[in-house]
Structure formats: structure tokens, C-alpha cells
Design goal:
- The protein is α/β, with parallel strands linked by helices and 375 residues long.
- The chain folds into two domains: 253 residues, Alpha/Beta hydrolase fold, catalytic domain (Rossmann fold), CATH 3.40.50.1820; 100 residues, Rna Polymerase Sigma Factor, Chain: A, CATH 1.10.1740.
- It is built from ten helices and twelve strands.
- The strands form three sheets. It has an eight-stranded mixed sheet with strand order 1-4-8-5-9-10-11-12, sandwiched between helices. It has a two-stranded antiparallel sheet with strand order 2-3.
- The protein is globular and about 65 Å long.
- It starts with 7 loop residues before the first strand and ends with a helix.
């Protein structure tokens, strides 16, 4: 049974310096909290979100059907991250389109909608913004930071940017950087958006249009990478939409997988912001903590002092188990406390969001261990 969640907002008038050399001021961060902060302020867990998610991590909104948080199976009373014991915080990242200041908001320096002029943000920038919000909530140290995919990159970055503020890091289905194939997928998706005639160089708001065609294609490309070949074949195979009747058309939908992808693309184009998609995929591309160390990940992770749990999934080819093992090796090179699990699951990258009993049991056991530190 889900609980009622309530979004909250904090305004930050002071400028936040960004990795690019730019800065952003007078910005707002949307967030939600679940559970209660204990007297020692030692039970806080930050959950970092992936590309198309938000601060709405768990619970439901009052009076809204189908409004469950994106990780509601993981977080809540009696769930693996038990809000009867932990104070859980979800924060919507800068540049998103779900409540925090983003490209569709007004630039205080110009009085105009940011659009394409919204500054490029990085994983490190998001972590710095999250740290400011935690300061305002009175949370100086996190019992854990938890994230999957791009959220896992943020969790890893927390241990490097603020090593003294993180006791545990749980990094799920993630990587220390994107490989060339992943960057290529992101670039093709971005090209689909920026070449849409309705994009208008990122200032489509002024024209009263949305580059839905580009967003649809971007989502279709992304969705293919989230699923495994096994899942696609089991769910759709070569099933035709109209039985055995072929239309012999290059334009019509023939196969069930085509229908599914178009449905996902249509749905996405109705709620996601095109400039946000460009910003977040570029943040994914840029993340590479080893860059400043000549590509040596072991050197890069020497700053981390947290204890780690890393989880990967056997059929995840977008963030393969090999990428998690790179992080594990680098941490072991530095004699850090690290646990690692590779779960044999058929669901591809999306497995980190699903109810695999072994996965849920693992996370539950790890957070039981964390809870004993402040019991």
C-alpha cells in the first residue's frame, strides 16, 4: 500500500557555479521526503534519479490515479529502503522538466524563457545543487546515497565530491563513464530532436509548438537500449499487428514491436521537454571522473571513503556488468569496503526498476545493515 507524497520546493537566490564556467542563480529545486529524520540526523538517504525520472520517487499523489513514484517498489514502509527507519530524499535535478528550474523557465537575467540558453549542467553540478538542498534540510551526512543508471553516476560522484558526507553508496546498473556506443545512441537521439522543424534552435516555446517528432524518435531509440533482446523476443517476437495479413507497406505499422515503440514515443513526447533531453543526455556523455587522472579510475576513486554496494544485471547491454566491475576493481585497488552482485535477470537495463526477488532481497539486506549503524 502506497502512502501520500507531497512535492516541496526550495528557492536558491545565490549563484551556483557550474563546471562549464557559467553559473545559474535564482533557481528552484523540487523535492520530496519520506519518513522522518531521527534526532541524530543520521538516517538520511538521498535517491538520485535517472534520465526521465524526477523527485517523485515513492508514494502516490492525493486524488491522482496511477501516480506511483518511479521507485515505489523499492522505497516505503516495510520495503527494501524502509521509510519507517530511513528519511528518504528525492531531488529533481536542475534542467529537468518536473518542477526544478529548467529550460522552460524564465531566465532572471533576461526576463525571457531560457530555452536553448539554459546552461549546460553536469553530474557534478547536480551533486553540488543537491548538497545545497541537504544543507537547507539540516542533513550534513548521508547514511546512504542510492541511484540507478544516471542516478548511479550521481551516487558515485557524491563519494568523490563530498567523501565526508556519505557513509554508504549504492550504485545500480551504472558505469564510470559512457562508452562510444552509448554516446553514439545519445547523439542520434539528439539529432532527431534538433532537426525537427518544430525545434526552432531550442526556442520552440516562443513559437507555441513542441518538437514531438524528434522526441518520439529519441524515445524510441532510448527504449530499444533499455530492453534486452530476450525480453523483446519474448514479448513481441515477430508478431504482426493484424495476424497473418501483410500490408506490404513501408509506412504502415506491421509488427507489434513497431506499435509498442510508437506508443512509447507518443507518450513521451506529450510530457518531456526537448531541451531537457539534450541537457541530460549531454550530462551522461560528460561524466568521467577518471578524465582528470589520465583515465586511471583507481586514482580517481582514491578520494572515496564510503562503503559501496554495486549491482549489475546480466542482460543489461547499455550499462553492462563489465562496467560495474571496473568500478569494483578501482575501489578494491584502494582497499575500500565494496560488495558486488551481478544478478541474472532477463530484463535488460530496465531491470533496476523491476521486482526481481533476489535484487530486492539484496537491497533490503544491505539497508538492514546500514540501519544497524544508528539503531
Amino acid at each position: 500500500m502506497s502512502f501520500i507524497a507531497t512535492p516541496e520546493f526550495l528557492h536558491f537566490p545565490q549563484a551556483l557555479p557550474l563546471q562549464s564556467g557559467a553559473s545559474i542563480r535564482d533557481y528552484t529545486l523540487a523535492y520530496e521526503t519520506y519518513g522522518s529524520l531521527n534526532a541524530e540526523r543520521s538516517n538520511a538517504v538521498l535517491v538520485c534519479h535517472a534520465l526521465n525520472a524526477s523527485h517523485h520517487v515513492a508514494g502516490v499523489y492525493a486524488g491522482q490515479d496511477k501516480s506511483e513514484g518511479w521507485w515505489d517498489n523499492m522505497i516505503g514502509p516495510g520495503k527494501p529502503v524502509d521509510t519507517n527507519r530511513f528519511f528518504v530524499i528525492g531531488i529533481n535535478n536542475l534542467g529537468s522538466c518536473f518542477g526544478s528550474t529548467g529550460p522552460m523557465h524564465t531566465n532572471p537575467d533576461t526576463g525571457q524563457v531560457y530555452g536553448a540558453d539554459f546552461p549546460v549542467v553536469t553530474v557534478e553540478d547536480w551533486v553540488n545543487a543537491q548538497a545545497r538542498l541537504l544543507d537547507r534540510l539540516g542533513v550534513q551526512q548521508l547514511a546512504a546515497v542510492l541511484g540507478g543508471s544516471l542516478g548511479g553516476m550521481q551516487a558515485l560522484s557524491w563519494t568523490l565530491q563530498y567523501p565526508d558526507r556519505v557513509r554508504h553508496a549504492v550504485v545500480v546498473a551504472s558505469a564510470p563513464n559512457l562508452n562510444a556506443e552509448n554516446i553514439a545512441f545519445n547523439e542520434v537521439a539528439r539529432r532527431a530532436i534538433v532537426t525537427d522543424p518544430d525545434f526552432h534552435g531550442g526556442h520552440f516555446y516562443q513559437h507555441g509548438v513542441v518538437p514531438k517528432r524528434g522526441l518520439r524518435i529519441a524515445r524510441m531509440i532510448g527504449h530499444i537500449t533499455y530492453l534486452s533482446d530476450d525480453v523483446m523476443n519474448a514479448k513481441f517476437g515477430r508478431q504482426l499487428r493484424e495476424g497473418l495479413n501483410l500490408k506490404y507497406s513501408t509506412q504502415d505499422i506491421e509488427f507489434q514491436i513497431e506499435s509498442y515503440l510508437r506508443y512509447q514515443g507518443d507518450k513521451f513526447s506529450e510530457y518531456f521537454d526537448a531541451n531537457t533531453y539534450l541537457l541530460i543526455t549531454r550530462a551522461l556523455d560528460y561524466f568521467d571522473p577518471a578524465r582528470a587522472f589520465g583515465g586511471d579510475l583507481s586514482q580517481a576513486l582514491a578520494r572515496a571513503t564510503a562503503q559501496f554496494l554495486l549491482v549489475s544485471f546480466s542482460t543489461d547491454w547499455r550499462f553492462s556488468p563489465q562496467r560495474s566491475r571496473e568500478i569494483v576493481k578501482a575501489l578494491l585497488d584502494n582497499r575500500r569496503d565494496v560488495s558486488y552482485a551481478e544478478i541474472d535477470a532477463p530484463h535488460g537495463h530496465d531491470a533496476f526498476l523491476l521486482d526481481d526477488a533476489r535484487y530486492m532481497g539484496l537491497i533490503s539486506a544491505y539497508f538492514d545493515r546500514i540501519a544497524k549503524e544508528f539503531a
